Structure formats: C-alpha cells, structure tokens
TrEMBL record:
This is Endoglucanase. Its main location: secreted. It comes from Ambrosia artemisiifolia (Common ragweed). Gene3D superfamilies: 1.50.10.10. It is found in: Secreted. It catalyses: Endohydrolysis of (1->4)-beta-D-glucosidic linkages in cellulose, lichenin and cereal beta-D-glucans.
Amino acid sequence: MAKFIRIGEAAVFLLMVVVPLALAGGHDYGQALSKSILFFEAQRSGYLPGNQRVNWRGNSGLLDGKASGVDLVGGYYDAGDNVKFGLPMAFTVTMMSWSILEYGSQMGSELGHAMDAIKWGTDYLIKAHPEPRVLYGEVGDGNTDHYCWQRPEDMTTSRSAYRIDVNNPGSDLAGETAAAMAAASIVFHRSNPAYSKELLTHAYQLFDFADKYRGKYDSSISVAQKYYRSVSGYADELLWAAAWLYKATNEPYYLNYLGQNGDALGGTGWAMTEFGWDVKYAGVQTLVAMFLMGGKAGAHSPVFGKYQEKAEMFMCSCMGKGNQNVHKTPGGLIFRQRWNNLQFVTSASFLLTVYSDHLTSARKDLHCASGRVAPSELLAFAKSQVDYILGDNPRATSYMVGYGSHFPRQVHHRGSSIVSIKVDPSFVSCRGGYATWFSRKASDPNLLTGAIVGGPDAYDNFADHRDNYEQTEPATYNNAPLLGVLARLHSGHAAYNQLLPVEVPLQKPIAVQPKPVSTSTAPVEINQKATASWVSNGKTYYRYSAIVTNKSGKTIKNFNLTVSKLYGPLWGLTKTAGGSYALPKWVSSLPADKSIEFVYVHSGPIADVSVSSYTLA
C-alpha cells in the first residue's frame, strides 16, 4: 500500500517550485560524473592528500593495523559507518576500474580524479596483502561501530584488524581482491607501468591463494557476517578473478580456467537477476560473453556460449523481456530489496550499457524470450534507470546528493551529519553523537556531494530521515558502476562513432498525452500537467505535477484541497481525517506569490483538484 511521504523541506516548497529535470537527455551527466567521483574523497580513511577537495574531512584511522604489526592506514569507509570492509571495497575498485577501461576516454578532465580514486583503494589493498597467502579483510568492528555515532576523526571504537590465511581461508575475499588488482593493473598499464606490474603480482598471488585454499571468508572473519555475508559463496569470485586476470594478461591459463571450470563453479549454470558485491555471476558472464564476441574463446567457444546465454538472460530479465523478470516500481525503477536497492540499479545499468555497446560493435542483437531486442534498447533502458536516480521519478527527487535542487538532506552518514572537525574541533563522544547529531532534525552540516543513497521503496516512496538507513545511507559500491554509465551518457556517441546515440527512446511514444489543466479559484491558481508516462503490465501510467500558487497578495493559512478521480498515490500534501488534503505538516502557510508542488501517479487522466477552504492572514 502506498504511503504518504513528505516530498521535501519547507524551504524548497516556499522558495521555489520543484520542477523535475528534463526527461529526454536533459540531465547534465558530466556534472553528475564529477560529483559521483567526488563522493569517494569523502569516504577516504588515513592521511588525506594535499589535493583533497572534500575539505570538511580530516585525517582518520591513523593507527589502523598497528596492534597487528601491519600498516593498514588508508582505504575507504564503505558507507555511513567508519569500518573498512575488504570485500565491498575490492568490488568498488574493480567496478571503478571497469568503468575506466570501457569509458575512460569519455571522462575528459575527470579521468585523473577517477584514477586517483582507484589508486586510493589499491594502495590500501596492497598494504592489506603483506604476504602471498595473508590478506586483511576488515578493520574495525561493525557492532561496536554501530553503537557509536562519531565522525571518523574522533573514533573511539575498536580498530581491530581481521585476516584470512591458509588456516582461515576466504576465497571470495581473495578472489575479489585479485580481480580488483588485475583490473586496476590495466588502468595504470601506460601511465604507471611499475605500479601496474606490482598490482598484477598481487593479483597472481591472491588468485593462487583463493583457488588452492578454498573457503568462505565470513567463516574466517565472522564479524563480517552481520554486514557483508557471502551468501553466494566463493565460486563466482574465482571465475570473476580468472576473467580479470585473463583480461589483464591474455595468459591462456586463465582462459582455460574459465572454460574448464564454468560448469563446476556455476558460470554456465546460474541465471541471475542481480549483480553486486556478493553475487558476481552476471558480471563474469558478461565478461566472458565479451571474450566470445571478441573472438578470444578458441576451443572454449561452446562453453563460453553457455556463459553468454546466462549473461543475456540477465539482460532480458532487467528489460522485462525474459521468462523470469526483475521487479520494477510503478515509476519503472529496478527493485530488488528495501535496503539500499540502488546498488543493484547502478550495477545492472552498467552491465546493460557495456553489453549494449559490445553488441553494437559485434553487429548483434539480444535474443530474449519475448523476441529480439536491439542494443539501443538496452542502452535506453540503462539511461532510464540513471535518469530516475537523477530526478526523473514520481517524487521528482534526485537520489544523488548535491545533484539537482531536491535531494536527500539528512543522509545516514556519520561524517556528513556531524559538524566538521575543522569548524568545531570539540570531541564528539560515542553516545553523545547520537544525542546531539544523529537525532537532529535538520539538514546535514556537511554536504556529501555525489553520494548515491539507498533510494526509494517498491512504490517509489522515500523518507528523508537520518534514521532511515535503508533508504538514506550511501555506499561506495553504489557509485562505482555509475562512473562508466555517466561517462557514456555524457559523451553520447561523440567518442565512439560505431555506437548508437543514447537518446533512442525505449518505448513507443504515447499516442495521446493528457492535456495540461489550469484552474483558478481566486485567489489560488492550480496548474496540472503530465510530466512522465510509462507502460507496466499493459497499462499506461502517468506522473502528474500539480503546482498551486497563491495569487492573493496575502498569506494563505488553513488551506485545504479536494482531490477526486485519483486512483494512485499522491506525494507532497497531508491527507486530513475528512479526506481532503492540507499543506504538508512542516508548512504552516503559503505566502503571497509563492507556490508548492505535489505529484501523483495513476493510470487515468488528470485528477480533479479544487480549493475547498482557506483563510487569508
């Protein structure tokens, strides 16, 4: 059942009308790319460099690893906490690297910043791998960390370091870290060959360790189970690492590994509807399909064809054209789970984008259960997902912090929610942070620019509250796949003349669009129009925007609207006990010449909206 959720803060409604960004190519993907890269600087741990651009952050975690006799200073905090989890960090590095390998030439001046973001991660991963068969997979403890609400610079929580070794294996962790090292080695191959070689050496060792000493990492590092449990096991990471080592080296050993182990390790058997830090099958299947289309499969072509079949099942499921399709919200967003759903949206969008471009280059189409799908349709669907994230959704909300005019202001993030140590160096205690900052009903003092938060629920609802960690907490692996997609969308087809333009519409235009409706009940003017439409299960749904403007010259109070012929959810007004709609609870009045906006979604024509009562102050 749809819930009535507040759509923004009072200042947004009273000072300006929230207007959704353009639906067809109207987003500034270059700006979004710049901001999404900047987010990684806010997640840095360790000694911050002189060129640090997120100035509200300071040095932190400077004794990490010391108690274990190893230097583990650096790396990234994974999300809104102050723990360094190795598995999602390595996946983040892998996906940033893949983004650059596919679309680095389209990143322009941001390429250097993206490479810096990768190197910040790989510098740490090198430290975390001090011996061929030893890898540190976590610094800090999620349980004690979550008990406290402190900025990283004030941490008093446990900084214990946890590792895997031959007696306590972790093939998934070691395999993902090998993949990250191998992928990054390609990124730095030309600009820093010595560093690239060092990364490749670590990748070789880690893959050997992962393959020979098999086991799940969370059985060895049990403190990770509550936060990053390896549900899929380690088989997918072994294939994933082998694929990246082949891509980095062209060595037949790794190609043969993929061919000989595809059946046993699930690469040819599992058809997935998700891709992320835990489940890598769709990613490795896409890579192997690219090897096949690139003529590199050799004697393994029949097996690689099975990988490709499963890769295409993933693509078809995302498009809603397979036998088992992913769920989508009424607004068209891929939806898998309540907690941090956008991680699956950005990763799927990346695979769709990459596969679309490689299909185009190979002059092939996608074959789904419902028929053939042109590569341009994959790219257009990926674009629709990114556009939703950036604001083309029923709430007209950008889920990238700092992008657009209406975005989350109370992010579940310790650093951004507490005053910068550079502004107020007073110590913030473990529990004091909860009392003073976590419970504070106001915007974050530090803007977490570029962060992709968890996102809306299955009905496109979203509550911008700091304690709503399922929806307002960001994560590095939300952003990493998005770098490549944003670069691709920003460049269009300028850099790759064999690629189709990104503006190709996914669906046929709706033949008849509802006409805008204006009504005036002096002294109030109401303007309604359809701002988006889509087809779901054979029905055409419309997103309508209604802008209410006070034309009286005086302040309006006790304002009530009657909304009839409404057959779906409405956002931005408060429903009264009598069934009418009032101003949002946090808006007590509507000053002269000011406007508010509310939105609703249903499959019918424009609803009847009229003024039922008001008083002039």
